[in-house]
Amino acid sequence: MSAHAMEFLAAHADELRTRLFEHIELVALALVTAVAIGVPVAVAVRKNRPVAGAFLGLAGVVQTIPSLALLSIMLPLFGLGRNSAVAALFLYALLPVIRNTLVGLASVAPDVTEVARGLGMDRAQLFWNVELPLALPTIFAGLRIAAVINVGVATLGALVGAGGLGVFIFRGIANNQPAVVLLGAVPAALLALTIDGLLGLAERMIVRHPWRVAVAGTLLVAGCLVALWQPGPKATLLFGFPTGFVQRADGYDAWRQHYQLPPVRFQELDVNLLYDTLRRGETDVAFAGAIDGRIDAFGLRVLADDRNFFPPYDGALLARKKLFQRVPTLRPLLEKLNGALTTETIRQLDRRVAQDGLTSAAAAREFLRTWTKTAGIDWQEKRAAAKSVEIDSPDILIGAKTSAVQYLLGRILEQLIDGATGWNAQLKSSLGSTAICFESLRRGDIDLYPEYNGMLAVTIFDIGSDPAAMDRLRDGDQLNRWLAAELARRYDLEWMPPLGFSSNYVMLVRADDARFNGIKTMSELAERLRR
Amino acid sequence: MIQLRELRKDFGPKTVVHGVNLSVAPGEKLVLRGPSGCGKTTLLRMINRLTEPTTGSVWIDGRDTATADPVALRRQIGYVIQGGGLLPHRTVRENIFVVPRLLGWTRQKCEDRLFVLKAALWLFDDWFDAYPAELSGGQRQRVAIARALMTNPSIMLMDEPFSGLDTRTRLVIRREIRDLWSLRDKTIVAVTHDITEAFEFGNRIALMSPGRIEQVGTAAELLFRPATAFARDFFDQSDRLRHEWEAVRLLDLDLPDDATNAGTPTKLGVPASGTVAEAVATLGGDTERVTLLIESFQRFKHALGGPPEDAESP
């Protein structure tokens, strides 16, 4: 292993330990619950075919719910953090456990049970001495499947604040840092293999040595958890960070140093969950994009970045130069958007979606109806509105990351191009992180997408590794000029004039949270926390 | 004493056993014999209430079993099935101690009883810590019998106890078991589809047609005095001779080498005793039939250069 890799591992050893602990804890809790509930349920219903079939069907339906969707269903029920993830993992584990228990009990050789009855075992004795022991290997095989599924799905727990190794994976993806992704993915894979191997061993030993297996398994899991446990920072406030914030040049560590803060207790969350969890009081402070309509809608308040820590996050379109060669009329049209979408405009539009229940496309049309008139663009709403389903071979593909604002911007572009040109545009949304969008654009899978200058500078050009460069580029205009030149030179991409809004990180608290009375800036908060 | 009174079993619309009456004396070995699907296993299982009769009753030692707790009843009756039905996840010792443990015997009491059975059943010490899968079929069968005998029940029910074993093992084991000192005083009801086995094992044979008992009697009675057309046709013509010969042999008779020359007897059974006249008398005086049998036997002997198959070597 190279010195660099060793250094990287050493720097993350403490967190790796914590994440591994969380991961094992999630999986263990889910499996124990699944066995504690699934096995008795299967035993109770096994003689009743219709009911057993209904349970299997139900568990099978749960299994088909995509994991992310299941997690978000659990979130309002169990709240942010461990419980939601455990609930989702439990439901995933339930099917293999119930199914294998039923199969295991049904496949006990009838001559063995018959002769055991014939010798005078009553039903309970038959169950405990014959049926259950003989079904155990099959039950364990189910447990093994459940465990391997759970180790994988548990990585998604990071998105709902449950921690685990997925934290590294999503942080790495968000920041375009493959090493950080591997820091989560490799231990997760090793964990899955280890659990699979150990349960395989247990499966073979369980029939003849059930107690030994039970004791060894309990000791092993408990031992792992005890060995990995370490105390977290003692702090009362819980911060919600967007995925990736921790490992960024303009993220947690740098921010903490900039404002001279002690370590804080935090959870990394999917950017879309930050507002809701803050509103519900599951976090106390959140870092999120300034532009989001939910800041107003949810009664949240911004604490000012009075020491200018966060670099500008001015929105602009990033497009392939080849697009404008192919569709020359597009450039003048898109350039007209320069300055048209102010932070205020976007927030209002986003609010129309978040609060008033409009679809993004409808909100986009609402904006275009008035704006195209003032901008003097011939925009036909009917043509834009006509398209309700995805078309097969669009002329222009617009990308958008997984966030409400990006989605809205993508719809505005799509409806604008459809209504004002003879070309067919198609939005490909939910491309995930900056790295994925950028890579798709570079390879020509999409033609353009909305991006933020600060985000490009940090994640694609990694200027955060050079603090001097970072300081120099804190000026938005300077950063835009630099980006336009670099993107054209290195990637043959065009960084268009700013759209007018800025989505830099802001620190949010609930407006009615009395603990923050009299605190208006980050410096004031830092002072309070230092005391 | 086991008595079956008007015992009937329906599975849905199908009647598997039609009102059977049968009584088995203490110490008797009764074999249920009949074509497959004739209800013999169902009949057997109604004795220890693994199957509940639709109507009719089973009386054991003057008591209606329907009034007994089925679990307690089964613990007093030995039960052995084809292949042994040993618990695959328990050692041989644990298997043998299953019932005593349920009854709360101490370890020492179990071991003491096993010590007695060990000698009687030719069980070997190095089997006890092995798992059933590590034993041969015949060994497993002996273990299953030991398990059924642990609590010394006066009644044993055996369902095809020897099938699934190879012919040689079967021959050896059923002789061993028939001669077992431990089984000598037991009342045994066994199901088998093997005629030779039925002849060797049972004092009496209950021949069943589907759902009914056609005739109950000794092997010779079944062969030479069939009570019904079913009983007469049951023994397939090609095998009849061999069965008849076996039946006669079991009577432990001396048969003459030459039917016409009664002066040079050939020993066919042990102990050697009796004469042709006695044989004829035993078989109900049907001289013609016995003479025919003896002549046939002679033809066999000459053709094969010895007695037909299944003869014991000295």
The main sheet of chain B orders its strands as 6-7-8-3-9-10
Kindly report the average pLDDT value of chain B: 77
- What pattern of helices and strands is seen along the backbone of chain B? EEEHEEHEHHHHEHEHEEHHHEEHH
Alpha-beta classification of chain B: alpha/beta
Query: Unreliable runs of chain B, pLDDT <50, ≥5 residues?
Result: 252-274, 304-314
| Number of H/I helices of chain A | 23
User: What is the mean pLDDT of chain A?
Assistant: 86
CA radius of gyration of chain B is: 21 Å
Helix content percent band of chain A: 55-70%
The oligomerization state is heterodimer
**Span from first to last CA of chain B?**
37 Å
Biggest beta sheet attributes of chain A: 5 strands, mixed
Which structural class do you get from the secondary structure elements of chain A?
alpha/beta
Number of strands of chain A: 10
Shape of chain A: globular
Largest sheet composition of chain B: 6 strands, mixed
How much strand of chain B? 15-25%
Radius of gyration of chain A: 27 Å
